[in-house]
């Protein structure tokens, strides 16, 4: 089960990188085939009306030089690492929170009811990316990072004051979920602009932050809650999150060339995603397969501690170790497929690990 989850978690994180890589490579090959001229070509923006650009303009801006390494590029990986750390890291650690809710804070609620808190947070994390993406396309990645960091910290502080179920739904489910979505989409959108041949590996290293976040927040929450109150524990978690959120707020650079595709565009930002990509059957099938494969991906992170509580053979004093172990195992499932994807192709690695995950 652990290997299955780690493989799927890794593969899910690679798909966004694959899309950026495929588009970039296609543009590069197309430019090689075109004669050098200033004839006008029309390209369609993802979120707007067609814009007239010359071929010479395309050769300079559609495929700008990518550092593919260097200190500043790896600092972007570090920034993305902490964005994952504070987005999916909290989702991965939610089982530890839920076990506390079930046994102490809200014992009158069933595990199914309590699981809505973590499920809503994960749902809003994914949903937010759809509407925040256009902001990043227009060069506002820093805005989304600051907004996400503020919402995550506000959600943690609000959770510390929660005493009722609906309080937790709003604070940890809604507020933190939206904030985590802002952090996550910023991480996966910025890295492809800094790496070409090592994109998957860079994204895999960054995605490992979600695993280490799950380990860190699970351990810290368990150790603190054993000695101090729930309210103070959550406030200390917010204090721990603050410096890790300041790193991307300071270091994140949305584009190495200071000219992202829409960074200088004065066109109005649309928060509604374009449906044109779904006219492509391969893209639609890939999106559908990714959706189906993700349905059960994070169930163990929420339910595993609760399931262990019902077991008569598993030591009650070691239940808190389950989530950290699960998160640690997924680190390899995020980094190794990234290394392979840069050499064998992202879709090939995705298909292979999907088969392996199904077999396990």
UniProtKB/TrEMBL annotation:
It is a multi-pass membrane protein. Pfam families: MFS_1 (PF07690). PROSITE patterns: MFS (PS50850). The chain crosses the membrane at residues 73-93, 113-136, 143-166, 178-195, 202-222, 278-299, 319-340. It is found in: Membrane. Residues 25-34 have a biased composition (Basic and acidic residues). SUPFAM superfamilies: MFS general substrate transporter (SSF103473). The keyword DNA-binding does not apply. Its main location: membrane. GO terms for cellular component: membrane. Residues 1-10 have a biased composition (Low complexity). InterPro entries: MFS, MFS_dom, MFS_trans_sf, Proton-linked_MCT. GO terms for molecular function: transmembrane transporter activity. Residues 72-360 form the Major facilitator superfamily (MFS) profile domain. Keywords: Membrane, Transmembrane, Transmembrane helix. The keyword Lipoprotein does not apply. Residues 1-43 are annotated as: Disordered. Belongs to the major facilitator superfamily. Monocarboxylate porter (TC 2.A.1.13) family. PANTHER family: MFS-TYPE TRANSPORTER DBAD-RELATED, MONOCARBOXYLATE TRANSPORTER. This is Major facilitator superfamily (MFS) profile domain-containing protein. It comes from Zymoseptoria tritici (strain CBS 115943 / IPO323).
